[in-house]
Amino acid sequence: MKSICVYCGSNAGNKPVYAERAQALGARIASEGLQLVYGGGNVGLMGIVADAVLAKGGEVVGVIPEQLVQWEVAHKGVTRLEVVANMHERKARMFDLSDAFVALPGGFGTLDEMFEMLTWRQLGLGKKPCAFLDVDGFYAPLMGMIDRMVEERFLHAEQRLDLWHGEDIDTLFAWMRDYTPAQADKWLDEKKRRELR
User: Which residues contact residue 119 at a Cβ distance below 8 angstroms, ignoring those fewer than 6 apart?
Assistant: First the structure.
């Protein structure tokens, strides 16, 4: 594992603990000798996690759509800033650059980016680990919804097992280092799925 992509809010949220955890994650990425890949912004949790990596001497690659550069939210101090045409190109480029994906608290954009990565993995387009680093129970209701998707048979249990959720950064990094995909490809027939269990 060489690069970790972090998805997170362009706002900092209403609790200091959100910024504290973003800073802690960024510092840990740098101390592990890993490169941060993120959305290229200088605002909110995005800016905080990038600055934390840079402060520890780590490398940061930002990938940002041209529209957001025009809105003057691009982080000009990162190691490398890649400007792309649109959000679709941004997600594809961040996927190519990254070995794992972690979501800190955020809004629509954060969920959109992480769920697209989960969908790609579900369809066999990648086998990279995806994790929600929770802060103060922020993602607990979402995990409840995902568990209900399994209960109601809209997701296979393997797909849920493939998704890490927790609050401890040490446990997160241990899980990413030892990651082995739990799920088979979605479109395998049930006989083949049972054989893989």
Answer: none
Residue position matching structure tokens 């594809």 = 92
Strand partners, 80: 61
Report whether pLDDT(185) > 70.
no
> Is the four-CA dihedral 4, 60, 6, 134 of positive or negative sign?
positive
Domain holding 184, by residue range, is 3-196
- The CATH number linked to 12 is 3.40.50.450
Report the distance separating Cα 59 and Cα 62, nearest Å. 10
pLDDT tens by residue, 12-21: 999 999 999 9
Q: How far apart are CA 162 and CA 129, in angstroms?
A: 7
Counting the structural domains of the chain, the total is 1
